[in-house]
Design a protein that fits this description.
The structure holds two protein chains of two kinds. Chain A is built from 16 helices and 15 strands. In chain A, strands 4, 8, 11, 12 and 13 form a five-stranded antiparallel β-sheet that branches. In chain A, strands 2-3-1-15 form a four-stranded antiparallel β-sheet. Chain A has a three-stranded antiparallel β-sheet with strand order 5-7-6, covered by helices on one side. The longest helix of chain A has 54 residues. By secondary structure, chain B is of the alpha+beta class. Chain B has a four-stranded antiparallel β-sheet with strand order 3-4-2-7. In chain B, a hairpin with a 2-residue loop joins strand 5 and strand 6. The longest helix of chain B is centred in the C-terminal third of the chain and has 34 residues. Chain B is elongated. Chains A and B meet through helix 5, strand 15, helix 10, helix 11 and helix 12 of A and helix 4, strand 5, strand 6, strand 7 and helix 5 of B.
Chain lengths: 530, 315
């Protein structure tokens, strides 16, 4: 036991470093995303796991420690980023699908556009003979089996309004061709841009695409363009100059994305997501919680004050009501607290606000384990048993009761853990651990202490147990009466107290269900007395 | 003292009609209120965004409402959150329809410009919670599933360890407690959050816990005091457990009351449900489950005979 306490203390000290706080206590960001494939279907398990992998890389890139990313159900991913400082920036990076696509801008590849609205683009596509189902899907998801709906954002500087296009799938190239990306500045305009290096396969593709554009430009005597599209937004629309003979064989190097008004931060973010790879799915926010560090600190302080006050009151109450046994119970409660805290840090359990609530509740449960046992011991002492044998039998009987009751609490806590979403889960975990540790301390700690104490002569006084002589007489009389089976049906008010003489004459009347221990233990006590 | 003395000899089972009447009335009121008022479901069960924010100079509620309304959210629900003694953050909760990242940033900037959001260590006091409709539905269905499964498991376990008659008594108490707690939420118009669901499940567990401790004694006395009429034997068991029940209720309530006074918003909500639940749990053990068990048991031939014999000797 001492060893356990020592180990626990090792895990506790120093407290600020070792207890893992949930984001509601230290501030941070929690998001639950629902994943959908590009055409709006539920993702496969493999896709979901791939998503978690990519998100993990992105989150690590943000420099957040202790992040947690896990799948939840068949199509959700939850991300917890405790301590993240700029939640908005983190969100813009994490949840981006980052599906990079290259489309040629000829009439076959781009059946519709530019038009001024989404509706106009969809209507035009329908007029060209696409099925209504396909158009509906395109409207809802932005991507259908055969088409992609793409928007180019408003360019205030050059006074170009928002424009809509429909491109035919599949694209000429995808993000798979990208080896790496880095943020930089355009040599001529000195505006932020993103430079892309292709893989060797990607290079070949890119060279082929640009060569084709050069040739058709030459044929039509008109410069051709292609679109670089990220998550259905046109980022760049570079032109291949057919009059430049140097481009005859296409472009062999990398490509450059230079949107109209990209900020430095945006270019960095874009390079970052391109480097971590595209998600195989689209993520929609299902639940999101941002807590600022100050709010978290405030909640933590309040919870700690409440917890300490609660613990203090219970300690005082137990001491007042159970006197010496109360002192033992208080020690047990403190040991309970140390063990539980140590366990939390060792596992480690992330402590959340509902978790602390669960913890505070378990103070009551832990105290009750002692109350039940002590009441039992008091009863046994009232019946005239020696303290030592009362401790033994009180323990055996009391613990049986507690076990059944605690198993039920555990059952509901486990149900809560299995079915509940994020927040109540933390509560369930602390409740489960609390109940287990409280039974553990009741068995090992309280029992051991009482067992040792019962060996001392001074301990064998009913008053130490909080039992008054009058209680004893009453209890023994009751016991005798009930054992005789004469049912005296008592009503409130009309009390007939049996004479005290009858009580003192009563031997231990109901030994049937009790372990036969009194005589043996009382001799043991005599030995100690010499 | 004389009150306690009487309590320790009070004929609990003899008055069971009254307890059932009282519980019946409470449940009826709860059900009527549920039908009429319904429940005020919190953000987690709906769709929307809730922002928690505090300002350097707390503006008047009306001014803030105007500002939020000007930013395009005329239907926003705005609440002032209480300051807590000691580390006071007096702030506001603003609930608006679900916001996108951009909309949220825009609203934050608008509010900051007008009232200056309080910041410490260079970080603004700004919390956001966003819930989509599908997530809300998911929370509701998983909560209901949890409650259903918990009830079934309890029934199975108590039947296995005790007897189905005990299980029926226990479930009666649990349903009684749960219904009344929900009824109180409906009557007082308190917001139901996911913390409330967790609290309700805990109440179910606690109510059962209390029951089992007393049932255990009843079962033990069944063997020991086998020649007594069942109702008398249950009374006897309840008297024996009275001190323990009062003490346990108190030791469980003390921390919960502290939570209610010192905890923040979430914890207060939680503590309120638990406070009501623990009181009900202690009540229902004595006044719901024990009487139900007694009625079921008194139908057994053996206890029928004992009851008749006791009547005869009394007359």
């Amino acid at each position: 036991m001492t060893v356990l306490v020592a180990v626990s203390l090792y895990f506790i000290i120093p407290p600020s470093v070792k207890t893992r706080l949930g984001l509601d206590l230290q501030g941070g960001l929690e998001v639950v995303y629902t994943a959908r494939t590009a055409d709006g279907k539920q993702p496969t398990k493999a896709q979901l796991e791939q998503t978690v992998g990519i998100l993990d890389r992105r989150v690590n890139g943000l420099g957040v420690t202790e992040s947690q990313i896990q799948t939840q159900g068949a199509d959700q991913v939850s991300i917890a980023l405790p301590g993240v400082t700029d939640a908005d920036q983190a969100l813009s990076v994490i949840g981006k699908t980052a599906q990079l696509e290259f489309f040629k801008d000829d009439p076959e590849s781009r059946p519709v556009g530019p038009v001024e609205s989404k509706d106009a683009a969809l209507k035009e596509l329908r007029r060209q003979g696409a099925s209504q189902a396909e158009v509906d899907q395109l409207e809802a998801e932005g991507t259908s089996d055969g088409y992609s709906l793409v928007v180019s954002e408003e360019d205030t500087e050059n006074d170009i309004p928002e424009q809509w296009f429909v491109y035919a799938r599949p694209p000429a190239m995808t993000g798979e061709a990208v080896k790496s990306a880095r943020a930089g500045f355009d040599g001529q305009t000195n505006k932020p841009n993103v430079l892309i290096d292709f893989t060797s396969e990607g290079s070949k593709q890119f060279q082929q695409v640009t060569r084709e554009l050069f040739r058709s430009g030459l044929l039509k005597q008109e410069p051709q363009t292609f679109a670089i599209v990220l998550d259905n937004v046109m980022e760049s629309d570079p032109m291949i100059d057919y009059t430049d003979p140097g481009l005859r064989d296409g472009i062999s190097g990398g490509a450059e994305i230079s949107g109209g008004n990209m900020t430095v931060q945006e270019s960095k973010d874009l390079a970052f997501v391109l480097n971590t790879g595209a998600l195989p799915v689209k993520l929609e926010t299902a639940y999101e919680q941002q807590v600022s560090a100050t709010l978290g600190k405030d909640s933590l302080d309040q919870a700690l004050i409440a917890g300490m006050a609660g613990l203090g009151l219970v300690l005082i109450y137990m001491l007042l009501f159970y006197r010496f046994l109360g002192l033992v119970a208080d020690l047990a409660l403190i040991v309970y607290g140390i063990l539980l805290w140590g366990l939390f840090n060792a596992i480690p359990v992330t402590l959340t606000l509902p978790g602390i609530a669960g913890l505070i509740l378990t103070i009551g449960v832990a105290a009750d384990a002692n109350v039940v046992i002590f009441e039992r011991i008091k009863e046994e002492v009232s019946l005239g048993k020696t303290v030592r044998s009362a401790v033994n039998s009180g323990y055996a009987l009391g613990f049986k009761t507690i076990l059944d009751a605690n198993v039920l609490t555990l059952l509901t806590a486990v149900v809560l853990f299995v079915f509940a979403t994020a927040q109540p889960k933390g509560f369930a975990v602390t409740l489960i651990l609390g109940v287990i540790v409280s039974m553990f301390t009741a068995v090992l700690f309280t029992r051991a202490i009482l067992g040792v104490l019962a060996g001392f002569a001074f301990f064998n006084r009913p008053s130490l147990m909080g039992v008054k002589p009058s209680h004893m007489r009453q209890a023994m009389a009751d016991q005798e009466r009930t054992a005789r089976g004469t049912s005296t049906r008592r009503r409130a008010g009309g009390v007939a107290e049996p004479p005290a003489e009858a009580a003192s004459a009563a031997a231990d009347p109901a030994p049937v269900t009790r372990p036969a221990g009194p005589r043996r233990t009382s001799t043991g006590k005599r030995k100690k007395r010499r | 003292m004389s009150f306690f003395r009487r309590l320790y000899q009070f004929d609990f089972m003899g008055h069971k009609v009254w307890w059932f009447a009282l519980s019946g009335v409470l449940i009826a009121v709860s059900l009527v209120s549920l039908a009429v008022n319904g429940l005020d479901f919190g953000l987690e069960f709906q769709e929307g965004t809730r922002i928690t924010v505090s300002f350097e100079q707390p503006p008047a509620l009306g001014d803030l409402r105007d500002a939020v309304s000007e930013a395009g959210y005329a239907n926003a629900q705005i609440q002032q959150t209480e300051g807590v003694t000691g580390s006071a953050i007096e702030g506001f909760q603003i609930q608006v329809p679900m916001l996108s990242d951009d909309q949220r940033v825009a609203l934050r900037e608008a509010l900051d410009e007008q009232f200056t959001i309080e910041s410490s260590d260079g970080k603004q006091v700004w919390g956001v919670e966003t819930v989509s409709a599908s997530f809300g539905r998911q929370v509701v269905s998983s909560s209901l599933k949890a409650i259903g499964v918990a009830l079934l498991l309890i029934l199975a376990y108590v039947t296995f360890r005790f007897q189905w008659k005990y299980a029926v008594g226990g479930i009666a108490a649990v349903v009684h407690d749960t219904l009344i707690v929900i009824g109180i939420y409906s009557l007082t118009g308190r917001e139901v959050t996911t913390a409330t669901i967790a609290a309700v499940l805990t109440i179910m567990g606690y109510s059962l816990y209390d029951n089992i401790i007393v049932f255990d004694r009843v079962r033990e006395n069944e063997g020991k005091l086998g020649r007594m009429p069942y109702a008398d034997m249950v009374n006897e068991s309840l008297w024996e457990m009275l001190t323990r029940s009062l003490n346990t209720t108190l030791t469980s309530l003390l921390p919960v009351i502290c939570l209610l006074f010192f905890g923040g918003e979430t914890l207060k909500d939680f503590a309120f449900a638990l406070l009501v639940g623990i009181l009900l749990g202690a009540y229902s053990t004595f006044f719901v489950s024990a009487p139900v068990l007694t009625i079921l048991k008194e139908h057994e031939p053996r206890y029928k005979k004992l009851k008749a014999a006791a009547r005869a000797s009394q007359a």
